[in-house]
Amino acid sequence: MVEELKNLTSRVQGVERGKGIEGLNYEDLCIQLDVDLPEGYKPPKLEMFDRTGDPKVHLRTYCDKLMGVGKDERIHMKLFTRSLTGDSLSWYISQNPKKWVNWVSMASDFMDRFRFNIENAPDVFYIQNFKKKPTETFHECATRWRSEVAKVKPALEEEKMNKFFVKAQDPQYYERLMVIENHKFSDIMKLRERIEKGIKSGMVTNFEALQATTKAL
Question: Which of 50, 53, 113 is nearest to 84 (CA)?
Fold first, then answer.
């Protein structure tokens, strides 16, 4: 009994101390304290923003997902934290939510904080000189390529993107892929993988190896 009283006293004292610390009360920490979600509302599965990528694209995607809550900006602001993760979430919760008087003020701060992603997006020159890393598999390289191309502003058309991708390949692949550079990217990927398998099995001539042998003679 004595031990239980001590524990209870300790918890009560902890609560009392917390009340006196500015900024740790629920009222200070909660965004849009007086806002309740509609009864039965289930938040949709949101795309997560981890500080990389285009912040405006994230804002538009987030707003498109908010179905069933109407146009109440306070609810939009209250739910926004659920679409953030990693460094972007750390930034968000370090802010004073009381400074955001409406959705635009919050969205503007978000844009200012992560505008760097847009200003430093890769350009066409970078894409044209894109090369596979020695430690990468082709699939890993292609995935990284698509990720980088998606950041280029203005966006590249599919046909131009495919031409850049084909041109970035080594000679033994380029000479074979250029004949289908107007096809779908998935078709180029499949042929590139087939050529690679053919070279490894010896069924397809490796032009680079052949050139090296010829020079040695």
Answer: 50
Q: Kindly report the pTM of this predicted structure.
A: 0.48
My answer on whether omega of the bond before 154 falls inside 30° of 0, hence cis, is yes
pLDDT in tens, 147-200: 777 777 767 788 888 888 888 888 888 888 888 888 888 888 888 888 888 888
Rounded distance, CA 24 to CA 15, Å? 11
Cα–Cα distance measured from residue 209 to residue 192, given in angstroms and rounded to the nearest whole number:
18
- For the CA atoms of 55, 57, 63, 67, the dihedral, rounded to the nearest 10 degrees, stands at -130
DSSP the chain: -HHHHHHHHHHHHHHHHHHTSTT-SHHHH-SSTT--PPTT--PPPPPPB-S-S-HHHHHHHHHHH--SSTT-HHHHHHHHGGGB-HHHHHHHHTS-GGG--SHHHHHHHHHHHHTHHHHT---HHHHHT----TT--HHHHHHHHHHHHTT-SSPPPHHHHHHHHHHTS-HHHHHHHGGGTTS-HHHHHHHHHHHHHHHHHTSS--HHHHHHHHHH-
